[in-house]
Specification:
By secondary structure, the chain is mostly helical. Helix 2 packs antiparallel against helix 3. The radius of gyration is 19 Å and the shape is elongated.
């Protein structure tokens, strides 16, 4: 599951890059393609980050139960969430605001430079979230192997 979530974040980053290229090259006749790719990218991005948060909620709960509320495990699961959740929320916020301002550009109410700047912020926030999440997921996997693997024996 962790790999699928990380891949969906990478797909979002790739989608953002493709959307940027399509936006730069878009003629009035091809703006719809830019919008469709942007919409799909936003949906995948929101899914990837919200599901990553649920992943840490679920695995944290299970780890706490299996470790019998071991103080070290409880502290580590809280540490994962305190790193991952803000990064995920900032990434989701950035991509939503970028998409909304794109609509403003289309209606002529938002300057293009603002949408472009927010696009750069969105890409950065997703790259940052990916970096934080991959490290937290690796640490989480170590805990899961220690406390949850014994169930399979």
């Amino acid at each position: 599951m962790a790999q699928a979530l990380l891949i969906s974040t990478l797909v979002t980053i790739a989608g953002l890059i493709v959307t940027v290229v399509m936006g730069v090259q878009a003629t009035p006749a091809h703006v719809a393609n830019h919008i469709i790719i942007a919409l799909v990218t936003v949906v995948v991005g929101l899914f990837s980050q919200s599901m990553t948060m649920f992943f840490f909620i679920g695995t944290g709960k299970e780890l706490k139960e299996k470790s019998e509320q071991d103080a070290n495990v409880v502290q580590q699961t809280k540490a994962f969430k305190s790193r991952v959740f803000p990064a995920a929320m900032w990434a989701m916020t950035a991509i939503m605001v970028t998409f909304i301002t794109g609509g403003g550009v289309g209606s002529g109410k938002t300057p293009v430079w603002l949408h472009d700047a927010l696009t750069a912020v969105s890409v950065w926030m997703f790259v940052r979230a990916y970096w934080i999440q991959i490290r937290a997921m690796n640490e989480n996997a170590t805990l899961m192997e220690k406390y949850l693997r014994s169930d399979e024996s």
